[in-house]
């Protein structure tokens, strides 16, 4: 497959003060575009050109670091834009909330543990809500790694590379993570992924 940069599912200024147009322009148009360009270059001659993006991520892990890094970041960002929406956050859909209550100790504990995963990821990386063996779990990964390589399905991810928040929040990663969870998350998309993974 050929990697292509997806359109943002909303206008650059649609997330308001929570994530600025400047951040989205740099993050989407520059950083994500670089993963697409570099990924396509590294995909040539790799022997896995015809695989799906998910399989390219899995098959390149531990074997082709350059391809893996760019393919994984392309995968992560394809979802990251959809994991946010204008007027996001708020109440979780019932089926997701039930699972959060039974498997993660309730919404407040989920919120606290998810934010803490992002906060304690040293350097660049991601914090995740993932489904593994039918159960929800919160994990963190360095750099471009994601739950796919841990035999899990990503349901929600937050990018804690500095380029995702530094323009708006400077070094205040905790504030960025709180705002992401409370004001940006598209819980309907998270639920769609959960239902598809079951």
Description:
There is one protein chain. The mean pLDDT is 98. The chain contains 8 helices and 3 strands. The chain starts with 20 loop residues before the first helix and ends with a helix. It has 2 domains: 63 residues, Helix Hairpins (Orthogonal Bundle), CATH 1.10.287; 104 residues, 3-Layer(bab) Sandwich (minor pseudopilin epsh fold). The chain has 198 residues and is mainly alpha-helical. The protein is globular. The chain has a 3-stranded antiparallel beta sheet with strand order 2-1-3.
Order of helices and strands: HHHHHEEEHHH
Helix/strand class: mainly alpha
Low-confidence stretches: none
Tell me the total number of β-strands: 3
- Major pleated sheet: 3 strands, antiparallel
Alpha-carbon Rg, integer:
16 Å
Shape: globular
Strand content: 5-15%
For the biggest β-sheet, the strand order reads 2-1-3
Number of domains as seen in the coordinates:
2
Q: Tell me roughly what share of residues is in helical segments.
A: 40-55%
Please count the helical segments: 8
């Amino acid at each position: 497959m050929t990697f292509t940069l997806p359109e943002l599912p909303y206008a650059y200024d649609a997330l308001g003060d929570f994530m600025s147009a400047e951040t989205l322009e740099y993050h989407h148009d520059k950083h994500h575009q670089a993963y697409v360009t570099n990924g396509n270059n590294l995909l040539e001659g790799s022997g896995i050109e015809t695989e799906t993006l998910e399989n390219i991520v899995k098959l390149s892990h531990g074997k082709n670091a350059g391809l893996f890094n760019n393919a994984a970041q392309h995968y992560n960002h394809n979802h990251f834009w959809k994991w946010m929406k204008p007027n996001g956050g708020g109440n979780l859909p019932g089926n997701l909330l039930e699972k959060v209550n039974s498997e993660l100790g309730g919404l407040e504990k989920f919120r606290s543990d998810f934010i803490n995963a992002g906060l304690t990821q040293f350097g660049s990386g991601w914090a995740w809500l993932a489904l593994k063996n039918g159960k929800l779990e919160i994990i963190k990964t360095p750099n471009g790694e994601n739950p796919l390589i841990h035999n899990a399905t990503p349901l929600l991810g937050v990018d804690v590379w500095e380029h995702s928040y530094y323009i708006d929040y400077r070094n205040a990663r905790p504030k960025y993570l709180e705002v992401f969870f409370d004001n940006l998350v598209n819980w309907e998309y998270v639920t769609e992924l959960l239902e598809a993974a079951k």
